[in-house]
Design a protein that fits this description.
single chain, alpha/beta, Rossmann fold, GMP Synthetase, Chain A, domain 3, nine-stranded mixed beta sheet, 23% strand, binds adenosine-5'-diphosphate
Length: 543
């Protein structure tokens, strides 16, 4: 081999941090506080405080490789932690504040966190699991909703005596930067340890025009929490490009978000479908209340974006959705649904159907799907199999070594998602493997049924899950939440589905429920539905 003669310059987050100060010092970062007031400062201020934070953490004894945990909403101090901790060579461990205290205790103990930074508003939550984590030596309180209780280390006071500069070390690009745990809906949560290199490459990829296209002229609103898969990398993309950044704090209700989008002229926002469903419902009620003309893209992922949602935003409000697939094990973005040049001539139904897929991989992510026996399947748009991926921002193992069976001998990661892939590479997630419905040996896609149900005008949300059946083993059941003031007969829902699916796919029963149980990251919690209604057909065999 003739080796190329180019510099081996390390791909580290420190470079993004330095750029933000050098080239974008006057651009604003805005955060909403719990009392709804705003904190505003610039990348120049951010840089100084990030240096001070690194200085303070060093003074407290934080060493390279140490885990510093955060238990915080999305705000500027969390962003300071996002950069200061990795750039000083330590590892930021983002804790998911929606988890049960027992899970948080397990995760923080597993990660052996040494320092924990917590919003004052979340101190009561921390106190519920503090006793379970003996490794935590220091607790630093961000006074978000009032002064830090006496006897506790205060974030702002810690920063005060520190200098405005910090001599960040020249790190190796393979050094760990951030630790994120999966939510552990099956088994214990597992840690994914992002490196500087994986995070930098992921940042560059999501800034590509065909991905989220983030650039300096953007105003980015990460609605997706910074404790969930690094807020899809949106904060790093903003720092890397010098885009204006708007942090919603704890105010994630549709009115607060729409106010923020209109007032701050947001151009790109990212969140899970539930957030966007709420926003669409409000916009439909009051279409003229907010000026959203600045909005360029609404990134949706984390669970399937129903086509009715994508169409509703586009048709009724002129807003464009970018549907992405990803997971914690990937830093996290893997694929994105974009039309290709030749689709310009396609009819609207075809375009919508492609935009509602999970899309095809972003550069450097590779995909394949395999059968139960590990056989690689054809990209024919109909054969279902488990999705496997590989690439420079795909985990190579879990932190702590659990879950070895998720990594194949030939270098792929088993996602646990059941998909079809069409000849052009478009991926359709039909289920998670733990949620598949196997009726008389045939797989029925719950996601396809849910999407169709959510296209019915009376339906707000629907989750389809497996019910035990005496003859067929499993049959689909639908849990349906109606829009306020609406009613619909089961027969009408069945007739609506019959237009799209073979008869044996149709749910055996429709259960009208006030809400669908969710996981800590906003996904339908089908294990809960199965627990509650799994025997429904055995108890009501006449249906
Ligand atoms: P966890 O695995 O801890 O629930 P993640 O956020 O990492 O948390 O979840 C990743 C999973 O979310 C994927 O494996 C997939 O099942 C689901 N998912 C993510 N994006 C989409 C999407 N656009 N459509 C359907 N499912 C999605």
């Amino acid at each position: 081999m003739l080796t190329g003669r180019m510099m081996d310059f390390p791909l580290t987050l420190t470079h993004f941090l330095e750029r933000s100060r050098t080239f974008h010092g006057s651009t604003e970062i805005i955060s909403r506080r719990p009392d709804r007031s705003f904190h505003r400062y610039t990348y120049a201020d951010f840089y100084r405080r990030t240096c001070r934070l690194a200085g303070a953490l060093r003074r407290l004894g934080v060493k390279p490789g140490d885990r510093v945990a955060s238990l915080c909403w999305n705000h500027h101090q969390h962003l300071e932690l996002y950069l200061a901790v990795p750039a000083m060579g330590a590892v930021l461990h983002t804790l998911n504040l929606r988890l049960h205290p027992n899970d948080l205790g397990y995760i923080a103990r597993h990660a052996e966190d040494r320092v924990l930074v917590v919003d004052r508003s979340l101190l009561p939550l921390f106190e519920k699991f503090a006793g379970a984590v003996p490794s935590i030596e220091r607790v630093i309180v961000i006074p978000d909703d009032g002064p830090t209780p006496s006897g506790r280390l205060d974030y702002e006071q810690l920063l005060e005596p520190e200098p405005d500069t910090f001599d960040f070390p020249m790190l190796e690009e393979r050094a760990a930067a951030m630790l994120c745990y999966t939510s552990g809906t099956t088994g214990n949560p597992k840690g994914v340890l992002f490196s500087h290199r994986s995070t930098v490459l992921h940042t560059l990829a999501i800034c590509m025009a065909d991905v989220f296209g983030i650039r300096e002229a953007d105003t980015v609103l990460p609605v997706v929490p910074m404790f969930h898969a690094a807020a899809w990398g949106l904060p790093y993309a903003a720092v890397a490009t010098g885009a204006k950044l708007v942090m919603p704090g704890p105010h994630l209700d549709p009115t607060s978000l729409l106010d923020l989008m209109a007032q701050e002229r947001v151009t790109i926002a990212g969140g899970v479908p539930t957030i966007w469903l709420g926003i669409l419902a409000l916009l439909d009620q009051e279409p003229k209340r907010w000026d959203l003309s600045s909005m360029r893209t609404m990134a949706i992922g984390g669970s399937a974006a129903p086509p009715a949602l994508i169409e509703g935003f586009q048709e009724r409000h002129g807003l464009t959705v970018a549907h992405a697939w990803g997971m914690s094990e990937l830093n996290p973005v893997g694929t994105l649904a974009r039309l290709k040049q030749h689709h310009a001539q396609a009819d609207e139904a075809t375009k919508l159907s492609l935009r509602a897929t999970q899309g095809f991989p972003v550069p450097f992510v590779e995909q394949r799907h395999v059968s139960d026996t590990g056989q690689v399947l054809p990209w024919d748009g109909s054969t279902m199999g488990e999705l496997e991926v590989r690439g420079p921002w795909v985990a190579s193992s879990y932190y702590g070594g659990e879950g070895k069976d998720r990594f194949t001998k030939d270098g792929w990661f088993k996602t646990g998602d059941i998909v079809t892939i069409d000849p052009e590479g478009y991926l359709r997630i039909t289920d998670r493997s733990k949620d598949v419905i196997k009726s008389g040996g045939e797989w029925i896609s719950s996601v396809a049924l849910e999407n169709a149900l959510m296209a019915h005008p009376a339906v707000l949300e629907a989750a389809v899950f497996a019910g035990r059946h005496a003859k067929w083993d499993e049959r689909p059941l639908a849990a349906v939440v109606l829009k306020p003031g609406q009613s619909v007969a089961k027969e009408e829902l069945a007739a609506h589905l019959e237009k799209h699916f073979a008869k044996y796919w149709l749910p055996d029963a429709y259960l009208f429920v006030p809400q669908i149980p969710r996981t800590s990251t906003g996904k339908f919690l089908k294990s809960k539905l199965r627990e509650e209604y799994g025997d429904y057909l055995l108890k009501h065999p006449q249906e």
